[in-house]
Specification:
Layout (H helix, E strand, L loop, with lengths): L1 H7 L14 H8 L8 H11 L6 E5 L6 E5 L2 H10 L6 H11 L9 H9 L1
Antiparallel strand pairs: 1-2
């Protein structure tokens, strides 16, 4: 329901399905790409397929994933990560824990990183 409201507010996103979120968009774009293509390339190709999308837009991966705000802008990424450090995506921590452990520079929140830098 959140994406219905975001769309109503005029926020940027590719065509959205109430039942499938943006999975149809991923399917359409995926058909034009190699089967072993990395997921990050999808974002670039979605922007290429939907030329009216700005550098920052919303994606809804319901029912297989979380909703997300995606950016291809270094200025906006700077705001997300440094000016107003937003919480890390929970799945990132779960996914990387077996590889890097529970505590790593990649998965630490800004307050944890600041404390670790003081040590």
């Amino acid at each position: 329901m959140i994406f219905v409201e975001l769309k109503r507010q005029g926020l940027a996103m590719p065509p959205h399905s109430f039942l499938f979120g943006h999975l149809k968009v991923f399917d359409e774009v995926g058909k034009t790409m190699p089967s072993d293509c990395h997921g990050h390339v999808f974002i670039k190709e979605i922007r290429r397929a939907y030329t009216d999308l700005p550098n920052t837009f919303y994606l809804d991966l319901w029912p297989f994933g979380e909703q997300m705000l995606v950016t291809a802008s270094s200025e906006i990424a700077h705001q997300f990560t440094q000016e107003h450090s937003l919480p890390k995506f929970e799945f990132l921590k779960e996914f990387l824990a077996p590889l890097v452990g529970q505590t790593s520079l990649v998965t630490m929140e800004a307050t944890e990183l600041n404390k670790a830098g003081d040590i």
